[in-house]
Amino acid sequence: GVSYFMQRVLNFSGGRTSAYMVINCYRPGDFVIFCDTGREHPKTYKFINDFEAHENIPVIRLKYDGGFKRLVQKRKAVPNIMMRFCTIELKVRTARRYLRSQGIMKYENLIGFRGDEQQRILRHKEYWKTVKTIFPISGSLVTKQFILDYWKSKSYDLEIPPLLGNCDLCFLKGKNAIIQILKEYPELADKWIEDE
């Protein structure tokens, strides 16, 4: 018989919010994809391993060929607010290439933006015009505080402060957050200085 099953792709950033989305939305047969920017905090990888072990949900790990460094060399620029090519290349296109290699051209894309992240949703709708994208936890009462409380009830957690998030000195964090991070973790600047 003909299967009308639309492949579902759950985007897992390696953070608490997207992990919460995956736990609450996963169905057997879904693809859970983590695209590694090469700039993740080492504890992010530990969290993904713990997540797989505790939740019994397999994660497909993908990486842009050569990672962040190769992308910067290729583009002869460091990503910035005017040229945000990192998300597009390291995540969106990397995932799309993998899905096409699996023969999947059409799929439902699930992204775990919270109810308090409406701006991010508007921005992402631009990237995913060609794919049906769903933000399953965005209309709800899921806020940053809700997520932090949720993980307090779990037997494992992402062991990094919320300030650090995933890509450690991402320009989208804003100047004040980046200054705060550099005060506490000055060593994180080294690889970014090298890129510049």
Task: Spell out the blueprint of helices and strands.
Blueprint: E1 8-11, H1 16-25, E2 31-36, H2 42-55, E3 60-63, H3 67-75, H4 85-101, E4 108-110, H5 118-127, E5 132-134, H6 144-152, H7 175-184, H8 189-195
Parallel strand pairs: 1-2, 1-4, 2-3, 4-5
How would you sum up this structure, described in words?
This protein has about 200 residues and is α/β, with parallel strands linked by helices. The protein contains 8 helices and 5 strands, in the order βαβαβααβαβααα. The protein has helices at about 15-25, 40-55, 65-75, 85-100, 120-125, 145-150, 175-185, 190-195; strands at about 10, 30-35, 60-65, 110, 130-135. A 5-stranded parallel β-sheet has the order 3-2-1-4-5, with helices on both faces. The longest helix has 17 residues, at about 85-100. The mean pLDDT is about 85.
Fill in the keyword field for this structure.
alpha/beta; 5-stranded parallel beta sheet; 8 helices
- Order of adjacent strands in the largest pleated sheet: 3-2-1-4-5
Shape: globular
Radius of gyration: 17 Å
Q: Averaged pLDDT, please?
A: 83
Beta-strand percent range: 5-15%
Main sheet: strands, sense, barrel: 5 strands, parallel
Number of strands: 5
Which structural class matches the secondary elements?
A: alpha/beta
How many alpha or pi helices? 8
Strand and helix order: EHEHEHHEHEHHH
Percent range of helical residues: 40-55%
Ends distance: 56 Å
Name the poorly predicted regions. Answer: none
